[in-house]
Queue: 2 jobs
Job 1
Amino acid sequence: MDAITAFDLTKEYGGTYVLAGLNLQVPQGDAFACVGEKGCGKTTLVRLLSGLARPTSGECTVLGLSPAHEPKRLHGVAGTVLESARLYKGMTLWENLRFFAGLHGMDDNDTLERSSLLLHKLDIWEGRDLPVEQLPTGVLRRGSLARALIHTPKILLVDEPTGGLDQETADAIERMLNYAAREEGTTLFLCSSHMSYAQRFCRNYAILKEGSLLAKGDLETLREGAGVRFRAQLRLGEHSPAPAGFRFVEGAWEKDLASETDMPKIIAKAVGEGLELYEARLIRPTLQEIYTAWMEGGKRKVKELDEPSAPEDVLWEEGEPLPQGDAGEENLAGEVPEEPDLREDREFGEPEHQGSTEPLPEEEI
Amino acid sequence: MNLENRSTRGAQSLSRKKKFDLGSLFSSGEMVLVGKDLSSLWRSKGTRALLMLLPVILVVVIPLVYSVAISFLPAADELALPDRIAALVGGVEKYGPRRQWMAAFTTLLCPMLFLCVPIVTSVIAASQVFVGEKEGHTLETLMLSSMEPKSILHTKVTCCTLLSVAISYVSFVAFAITVSVADLLMGAPFFLNLEWIVCLLLFVPTVALFSVVFVGWEASRVHSCGEALQTMGYLMLPLLLLYLAQFAGAFRITVPLLLVIVLVLGGMSVVLFNITSRKFQPEFLFRSSPEN
């Protein structure tokens, strides 16, 4: 059984379609994130799935339950974190947890045990006896998560707040979510506009754009769909010539790869050609890069950018002058390097860039 | 056999006893919510002050000031009650002006002051419990718990009504002591009559229920506790008009009239509760787009 299903899910507010015919299936046990920019329908989706709103048309189920018609049963097996669903002011964190545990019909012993576990795992034990209005934002966020997890739900629906999370909160939440997923089999459904958090917590993703599903899958599927490539990054010795097809980005040479299997070949060739190879890394595209590519049109745009590139298995041709990196040249001239844009960087090895074979000075590599 | 019978009878009497337990009125989750609501009302200093001070002013301070003022009234016959009002009170012709005015006050005006107590306390409690939760974004959290919205409404309405009735009855005790002492000191007739008993037993619970349901009904429309408290005026105005019209001699509020009003208010409460429970859904309570 899927943890979440949505068929042609549509929600309209005052004539504006916030969600437009969304179709989605999330398997049980998954850690799934819906990502998109502000206003793409993420919060509305969580509200529909948690029964706080009813769809204008279409339908959705959570663990086979209809949020609109069986909210009581749904909330017994689902926990929901929303920025607009807050804890009670005037009550301490501990009292809040005890209250919500009581609403879920938990007895005192279970409440004590579960609350202690959650407060310790989320690292907010120290703040348990403070009134909610005195707690910092990060602790409140963790407190809201503890509230949603108090009854050990089978699925956790999280709408991540717009403001993002501080490092300490993000770490604590990650620990808690990992524990809930591993030890309690909780399915995570996260809606976020912060790709780094989504990538940190989840394995599968859906990209939403203007209330519709743009793409869905794991990172690799989305990467292939968007046409974003792996990158090889080489750090060479100071006297090494610039490798062909590579561009100089932030102190290292980078090149797009068709596949990650090309990486060993590049290393072998670099070593075989006598380059002073200090470090070779395969850089996997982040969710942010993949998301940006999808927003910019996916494969089409990438294909256009690919056309003038040099052959990928050649570092440089025998006898031809060694290519020079743009960034390095700019730095040599003493200019401030610009923020590198991977898709717009000029390819080395092209005629207009060929010139001096002088190696880059040490401090610039 | 005897033992079996005895144990069956014991169980029956236990279950009969259980019917009067608060636990039979609320489920365990609802009891938790009642406890939280009552404690949040108590913790809020402003609400606590209003719930305690307003009844005291209405049923202790005002009657006390009136009694003291009446005690300074000269015993001249021209200051006696106008005939029309005296006829409304009934059987006060034999008393002096002070006693007549005291009797008129306790019979014709004090029920109005007393009936303001359930309205005031109901509106204060309900606006905190319904609109205060909505304002503090906790009603949404409550809707995410294992309680049906209808059950939340039922619990909050019952809790506020019971609280209001309890405060009203405590107020009545304070009122009865104040007025009885004044009656005794002035030699006025004892205030309690059949109308008062109907007011106490039927009117107070009905008007408290109606006031709470009214605030629950408007919870989706108003945005703040202050806004909800303003509706107290709509509820008190008909009551004030009713009793002031009586004091002006327009008519007499009799037991049958009170029973009719109680029935009408009860019916309206049921209808309004049903309308409210249909609208007491997150979809109606939180209407705006969350994406903005």
Note: The first strand of chain A starts at residue 2 and ends at 13.
Job 2
Amino acid sequence: MKKNGVKMIKINSKNVDVFYGKKQALFNINLDIEENQVTALIGPSGCGKSTFLRCLNRMNDVIDICRVKGQIIINDFDINDKSCDVVRLREKIGMVFQKPNPFPKTIYENISYGPTIHGMAQSKNEMDEIVENSLKKAALWEEVKDRLHEPGTGLSGGQQQRLCIARAISVKPEVILMDEPCSALDPIATAQIEELIDELKKDHTIIIVTHSMAQAARVSQNTGFFHLGELIEHGSTDKIFKNPENKRTQDYITGRFG
Amino acid sequence: MNKNKEKLLNSRYRAEKRFQFYGKSAIFLALLFLTIFIFKIFSTGYTAFQKTWLIVPVTFDAETMYLDENPSKEDLEDADYFDLALQTMFNLDKSATEKQQNDLKRMVSYFFEREIKRELLNDPSLIGKTKDVYLTASDDLDQVFKGNYPRDLPEDQRRVTDYQLKIFDQLVEQGRVESKFNLSFFTYPDSREAELAGIASSFMGSIFSILVCLVIAFPVAVLAAIYLEEFAPKNRFTDFIEVNINNLAAVPSIVFGLLGLGILLAVFQLPRSTPLVGGITLSLMTLPTIIIACRASLKAVPPSIREAALAMGASKMQTTMHHTVPLSMPGTLSGTIIGLAQALGETAPLILIGMVAFVNTIPGSPLDPAASLPVQIYIWAESAERGFVEKVSACIMVLLGFLIIMNLFAQIIRHKFEKKWS
């Protein structure tokens, strides 16, 4: 989205290095993410695209041996700074994982969990509203409205993933990170999720890691290509797919390796 | 070449068959031992659930009880029943010599006086009348009636005299001997007399010990496990702790008994022979078992659940308490029950802290002296009387029943609650 013809930058990463123990996984990543756009991160397995994604909501903190250097600036604030509160950060930056991972609780409880711990609803009615809206936004409401109090783990894979998306948007995050959200789903479920992503970009900035170049081409406006821990090239999806500058990008896009 | 291949294939099939045969014979052997063991216990123990009663006519003669006319309830309570009871037994053979009278008295338990008294207190109008009263037979006659006593031994090697046998046979003929369900085995405390000995004190002792053990071990172990698994940094020090928890689980239980003796009794001066001390000692033993079970089930919670919660902005503490711990509870609980079942069967540490003392009262709290079921088995197994042999087996049956119920419970918890999250 452009305001006064200027692209709004939501996330600005500067010189990001990531180490797992002594092994360096990311080298000097500089990537700007535009607001209310879908940015796809592509690249062969092990290239560091998921690692980069997990830097953005500091999920790498969970891994003991992982160290992140450099600046990641969101809303004029460096999230790697010591003063940054991880809990507040993750409220603003939601995440959807590769494998659907609903809590082994009811559908309702899955959605209400985030708003509950962040104190977003004052009453039962308010909570019902949040749950309904989140499920509607995730295009799941019609399918589950009669069984909100049944376990979320009883849904099909695609429904579970949409439940996870609904859970992520229940706390109204500014950014949603998606780590190969469709890799465990069949083509129909994948199509539903892609449609959903397009819808969600009105209210959220979306960053999606994907193995499927076709998917990147379908859903994203911007694309970054990672290889061996480096960001080789980034820019508008059109340009990356039709007219890549770098030889390696071209080879990957045309399927010569990866 | 082809022949070689065929040979190789055949030898592989044979190897598999051999292996299956070994496996099957191992299972067969295990089952055989188990069957023999259970058969032995049941065949010697089942008679303990029956008790032999002599039905003796008692004439409630006011004079023998030194009662005035129209005695009040208190008078009946305070009256002397001993002479009446003696007289009742002597009446079985009016021509008995003094020595034979002594034999007659020994045909019933020393509770006979109380049994007669209870009868009269239940119905004071019996004064002056005669009524058949059930008296507990002595353990030797009990065994004779159950057929466990070799009657063909020479008299001087028997505890039952020929005279007693003669009178007993007469009573049997008159239908004055009856075998009924042995309720007193469950309601009486231990006794030196086999016919009166019951498991009430040891059963309650076991229950109290287990409760104390649960109350102490469960929270401590679960907190330790959660901290170690979810919060503690992984370094050499925590590795060291982990190794030592595993070592602790392998420490012989008698060592914990010595610890209880040396610290709980000697230093803290806690009351000895009580389920409180027993429970604390057992909790030391159960602690590593529960910690290991709890850590294993925490580990089994898929990391994706933790990530999901963390990504929603839950703190580490919220992630643990809202998601990981509830999901690990079935495993933890069944581990706890199995740990408690182990503690229930433990004898050595309890002997060291004095729960082996002869206790003929039923404990009402963990602070009263008590025995425990396995110690009771040990005490009875040491006794020479024939009547205790069946009691040992019966007590083992009760203990086994208890253990089976606990393990069943552990299984049910595991199956019922683990279904939820696959």
Note: Residues 2-253 of chain A form a domain with the Rossmann fold fold (CATH 3.40.50.300).
